[in-house]
């Protein structure tokens, strides 16, 4: 598969590690045929305006590079991107779920086909040990209280409906299930099988 074969890219939030591959080193679009979907509130906050990230625990020069990376990465698709508000089936089998807090517009994604589903929690949690088994809050959450509410909504849904979960930054295999406990949640990692 070549980059030209990709026809749709759904961005969950515009942090630099989630949009970096949109542009080539020369500033052109890395996926020239793809329609890129970006959460409207993230686009307004990070791309249209100068984001205030002063509450995030990072040195000033890192913060400046962080913002510059976002703008540079999104630049080649800024005019053509489709801005979306999470909460609907964006593409067949790809339903976006509002999960703001980590960034203003962050979306989780429910990938579904027939009776099967996978809940992609984006950056609602970084580590099952720190953010699921323990309720420690990720430092890069822009609005920690909204992020906490979003996290609980996603975890409750995954636990109640028994939907397998994929977290972007989780250790291998990245997939598991979330169970509710008396005072929180517990991560049950999927056992990985090599079928090759
Ligand atoms: Zn993030």
TrEMBL record:
<dbReference type="InterPro" id="IPR001279">
    <property type="entry name" value="Metallo-B-lactamas"/>
</dbReference>
<dbReference type="InterPro" id="IPR051013">
    <property type="entry name" value="MBL_superfamily_lactonases"/>
</dbReference>
<keyword id="KW-0479">Metal-binding</keyword>
<protein>
    <submittedName>
        <fullName>Metallo-beta-lactamase superfamily protein</fullName>
    </submittedName>
</protein>
<dbReference type="GO" id="GO:0016787">
    <property type="term" value="F:hydrolase activity"/>
</dbReference>
<feature type="domain" description="Metallo-beta-lactamase">
    <location>
        <begin position="7"/>
        <end position="169"/>
    </location>
</feature>
<comment type="similarity">
    <text>Belongs to the metallo-beta-lactamase superfamily.</text>
</comment>
<keyword id="KW-0378">Hydrolase</keyword>
<dbReference type="Pfam" id="PF00753">
    <property type="entry name" value="Lactamase_B"/>
</dbReference>
<keyword id="KW-0862">Zinc</keyword>
<dbReference type="GO" id="GO:0046872">
    <property type="term" value="F:metal ion binding"/>
</dbReference>
<dbReference type="InterPro" id="IPR036866">
    <property type="entry name" value="RibonucZ/Hydroxyglut_hydro"/>
</dbReference>
């Amino acid at each position: 598969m070549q980059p030209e074969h990709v026809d749709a890219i759904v961005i969950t939030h515009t942090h630099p590690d989630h949009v970096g591959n949109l542009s080539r080193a020369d500033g052109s679009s890395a996926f020239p045929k793809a329609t890129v979907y970006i959460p409207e509130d993230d686009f307004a906050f990070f791309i249209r305006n100068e984001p205030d990230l002063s509450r995030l625990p990072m040195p000033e020069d890192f913060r400046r590079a962080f913002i510059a990376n976002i703008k540079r990465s999104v630049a080649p698709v800024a005019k053509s991107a489709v801005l979306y508000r999470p909460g609907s089936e964006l593409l067949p089998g790809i339903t976006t779920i509002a999960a703001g807090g980590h960034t203003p517009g962050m979306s989780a994604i429910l990938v579904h086909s027939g009776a099967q589903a996978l809940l992609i929690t984006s950056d609602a949690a970084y580590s099952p040990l720190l953010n699921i088994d323990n309720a420690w809050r990720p430092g890069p959450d822009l609005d920690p209280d909204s992020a906490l509410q979003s996290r609980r909504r996603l975890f409750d849904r995954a636990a109640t409906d028994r939907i397998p979960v994929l977290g972007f930054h989780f250790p291998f295999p990245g997939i598991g299930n979330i169970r509710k406990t008396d005072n929180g949640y517990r991560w049950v990692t999927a056992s990985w099988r090599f079928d090759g």
